[in-house]
Design goal:
Helices cover 35% and strands 25% of the residues. With 515 residues, it is of the alpha+beta class. Helix 2 (261-273) packs across helix 3, helix 6 (322-333) packs across helix 12 (433-441) and helix 13 packs across helix 14.
Length: 515
């Protein structure tokens, strides 16, 4: 049994492939031009065999130099003793052709072979051009570690004094998977990133061009020193970039650092999440900007930058760290936190948190618990809520801080039953001051009430690195303006043009250079 062949060119778009093949195919025959017998050469043929279940299979890949060469037919799989073969009928056109490489791929079922040593041979018009010897018992399909990749590419650039590298690994077929790709570790002036790849030894197509790319931030490096980037595979094989200097890879001086997608994304990690970007996140957001909006400037890029920027405030990571800190302060004092206190506290709730990494949810839970206990132990908190308060007085004081007319007959954010449950818990010792404050901060109604307030506040904290009533502003008028506008548009930051205004502001852009 023979699988249907697959043909392609070095292209991604199926329609483009069809057009190129049509254009490259021989034109209307001139007199004397025709297809004549022709034999494949060994370097044009690649063979792979594997066992799956009780059958053995083979993949044959042909690389034809132009459409002037073709496979007119493929014979059946034949067996003589322990020799299995397939014969291609190949032809060459005597006229002219466009020089476009053509790939062809065929899969063959060699049948149920008994244990033993076999040879599978690919023939072209009866002439053996490639063969492989195997034992079905030793080639069962499985995953195996490998460094056998098609290529490793490096791109390095420096923006705003920060050096970035994009590393791309191209796979020979679609039977590869990335198990682990570690952040680069500096060893001398070489940044070494360790990679573990696995290859499926069974059915996989070489016509499916796949690979993996990571964008890494290498940080701020001495401008004139020479560095390299190395990929080290789990089997010890290494691929190293050409030497570079940060000065030699710098973006043009006329280009603002924020106009570089990698610098833009990295800065959002620092400003909103308080950490260096993980490679998966940096790569994802970098590609989201560059692949969708490659031209600078463009309306597409303006919209994409706004959406990527807002995504950091809306992210699970910020909502569970920074926004949680905001609500803790508001629930405890009835006031929004000041910037310095906010960032100091956010670092505590965000410690070792990278959403998506194994154990991140447990880490967030532990950070929030520790922070709530430390918060209620602060002198200013104890002064505001002395130990002499009864459980009811403590709960009611906090409930008053998060109060809002959620329900007509029940004051505060808590329902009567929720209030009584917390009071009884404090009296019985099943709740503590810390757990009660934390439950207040996590109250769903309170969270919805404060969402836009926090969103606007973080525009000042994140982009401008100041409190709303400091610097160029001495009042809360600017904050109140943007909050009113955001509320008017129902929280739609795009139509409110809030994020765009802060991104485009002179004050923000001058943080990193002249506008």
């Amino acid at each position: 049994m023979k699988y249907n062949p697959r043909l392609t060119l070095i292209c991604k778009n199926a329609l483009l492939i069809a057009l190129l093949l049509a254009a490259a195919a021989p034109a209307v025959r001139a007199q004397g031009e025709t297809w004549v017998p022709w034999t494949l050469s060994p370097q044009m043929v690649a063979v792979r065999v594997w066992a799956s279940g009780d059958h053995t299979f083979a993949r044959v890949n042909l690389t034809l130099p132009s459409p002037c060469y073709r496979v007119a037919g493929v014979g059946p799989v034949t067996r003589q003793g322990n020799n299995v073969s397939v014969d291609y009928t190949t032809e060459q056109y005597t006229g002219g052709c466009v020089q476009v490489v053509v790939f062809r791929e065929d899969f063959f079922d060699l049948g149920a072979l008994e244990p033993g040593t076999y040879t599978f041979t690919v023939k072209s018009r009866g002439t053996a051009v490639a063969s492989v010897t195997f034992n079905p018992q030793q080639i069962a399909e499985h995953w195996e570690e490998t460094s056998d990749v098609a290529s490793v590419g490096f791109s390095v650039w420096t923006a705003g004094g920060v050096t970035f590298t994009s590393v791309s690994i191209a796979f020979p077929d679609d039977g590869y998977r990335l198990v682990e790709w570690q952040e680069p570790v500096r060893s001398g002036n070489d940044f070494v990133s360790r990679v573990r790849l696995e290859r499926w030894t069974g059915h996989a197509s070489a016509l499916a061009h796949q690979g993996e790319t990571r964008v890494f931030s290498l940080g701020t490096l001495p401008a004139d020193e020479t560095f390299t980037v190395t990929v080290e595979f789990s089997d010890g094989a290494r691929r190293t970039s050409h030497p570079f200097t940060p000065a030699g890879t710098a973006r043009p001086a006329s280009m603002h650092p924020l106009d570089d997608a990698a610098f833009f994304v990295r800065q959002h990690y620092l400003d909103f999440l308080g950490r260096e970007p993980d490679a998966e996140g940096l790569t994802y957001w970098y590609n989201d900007i560059v692949r969708n909006c490659p031209f600078i400037p463009s309306p597409c890029l303006d919209v994409k930058r706004v959406n990527v920027s807002a995504a950091f405030f809306l992210s699970i990571e910020f909502q569970r760290t920074g926004f949680y800190v905001y609500r803790m302060h508001k629930a405890a004092t009835g006031q929004m936190p000041r910037m310095d206190v906010f960032f100091a506290d956010t670092r505590k709730t965000a410690e070792n948190v990278v959403v998506g990494r194994e154990g991140w949810e447990a880490q967030v839970e532990e950070n929030q618990r520790r922070f709530s206990e430390e918060f209620v132990a602060r002198a200013e908190f104890k002064e505001r809520y002395p130990e002499t308060l009864t459980p009811a007085q403590y709960v009611d004081a906090l409930n008053n801080n998060i109060s809002h007319p959620f329900r007509e007959n029940e004051p505060g954010a808590l329902s009567n039953s929720e209030r009584e449950e917390l009071i009884q818990g404090l009296s019985a010792g099943t709740e503590t001051r810390a757990t009660v404050l934390r439950k207040m901060a996590l109250n769903p109604d309170f969270t919805r009430q404060e969402f836009n307030n926090a969103f606007v506040l973080l525009e000042y904290f994140g982009y401008l690195r100041r409190n709303p009533n400091e610097g160029p502003d001495t009042t809360w008028d600017g904050y109140n303006y943007w909050l009113a506008k955001l509320n008017t548009f129902g929280g739609d930051y795009v139509n409110a043009e809030m994020v765009k205004a802060f991104l485009d502001s002179d004050e923000y852009r001058k943080r990193f250079g002249q506008q």
